[in-house]
Amino acid sequence: MCFNHTHNSTPKPVVTEISETSSTSRRAFVRKIAAGSAVVATGAGLTSCATNPETGRKQFVGLAPGGESLSSMAAASWAEMKQQTPTSNDPRYTRRLANIGSRISRGAGRANQTWDYAVFDTDTKNAFVLPGNRVGFYKGMMDFTDNDDQIAGIMGHEVGHVAGKHAQERMSLQMASQVAVVGGSVLGSTQFSKKCNSLAGSQRESCMNSANRNAQMLVQALGLGTQIGLVLPYSRKHESESDLLGVNYMYKAGYDPYQAVKLWEKMAADNPNRQPEFMSTHPDPANRAQTIDAYIRRQDKMGSQGFKDIRT
């Protein structure tokens, strides 16, 4: 894996999305990627790292599919989502989102890239980004916000996932964790088999049945361990990193960064009974608001040099 010796514990921050509500299509996209690349993962080195110029952070991205392959698979998932969920043609939503997206992409230094925006006509409070700069907002999310600045905060967050290469990093980590689980299962099964082979008759049969049950329990335990210990924390890291990148892009695009704080305070009030953060792929909304607020205050103290960089 990659190790970052130059950064402290301040959060920096696939389908990557603003909240934990996810559709079948997005989950299917991630499963499709992982299944198609698992064979590659078993034969690849697990130490392939690259430094992201946007954040200065080393990332483990060596197991993710190549850019064109990833984008084409995302395009298929994007088309499938549009077939399954109605999209809005209301210019009050589509034009508004496109205008905000255009400003944020300029603020992120990515105005020369092609961006595809869609507004899904449901009450879901969510937004997401797919590889290939495909950004989806739900009408429920746009209606939930108080102003364009808060929508810009969400848009900046999604663009932050692209700049942070979070989809590639998360896929690499998930595939690496799958390799670890399979390896642990094989090792456990081998140990049980050696014990059972020394027995005979009904004792051997009983031992093998017990070994199979223990092997299944081992896989479940290992899977839970890698999920809570590796994948979920990295997911939260990505979300936090995107929050701060998004604040930078808001500032550079001329939006009020403090509206990102207001947005997450509102999200926290709207969702008071969420699951414990250590079991979640997303940081607690109240914690996100506090982290963003503290970050903005630090940048304000830096005067005109503020908001230049999230490397802290």
Automatic annotation (TrEMBL):
Its cofactor is Zn(2+). Keywords: Hydrolase, Metal-binding, Metalloprotease, Protease, Zinc. Binds 1 zinc ion per subunit. GO terms for biological process: proteolysis involved in protein catabolic process. It holds the Pfam family Peptidase_M48. It comes from the Bacteria. GO terms for molecular function: metal ion binding; metalloendopeptidase activity. One of its GO terms (cellular component) is membrane. Residues 93-294 form the Peptidase M48 domain. Belongs to the peptidase M48 family. This is Peptidase M48-like protein. It comes from Litorimonas taeanensis.
